[in-house]
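Quarterly update from the structural biology core.
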Amino acid sequence: MKCLVYFDGACEPVNPGGLGTYGYVIYGEGGRRLARGYGVACHGEGCTNNVAEYTALREALRKAKELGCGEVEIRGDSQLVVRQMRGEWAVNSLRLMALKDEVEALLASFARWSIEWVPREENKEADGLSQIAYEAHAAQYGYGGGDGWIQTLIGEVRRAAEAEGLRPEEAAKILAELLRKYRLEELRELAEG
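Predicted structure, tokenized:
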């Protein structure tokens, strides 16, 4: 199976030294979204946007392998990662060298792969997931929580799950299905009765 992989990373509120987060999206043939993910790459001293970008790529490739992708077309908006993976630019950081080695080992497990740079506008979903990761984890790492909307949403899902005797993951899945099925305006009308 041939897969299209988008990845992105960020280090906020400062780079270097902030909270490094990542996001990725994997599409299968016909443009069907197979998976998406996000998480924390690093924090504090030594954490950079580039570490987060490489971590995003590594995690995306791990998931692509797990999904059974035989070939991957990779797209990201990091000139540095794309050019280093193509061998066009040298890797001077020991931390990035280690991450690049991990990525190369994963790439060796695919029959074919390619990587290309895309403008940030074409990488919005992966970028958005990286931002969600920041919002979800910022307070935990002492960086504040932005406007806190993610924490509020997570808290509401957890409370609803507990009240209904569900696991938070089950409640989140139900909520996600509602958001796919209905427009927000329709849900607002339902909530307001």
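The chain is about 50% helix and 20% strand.
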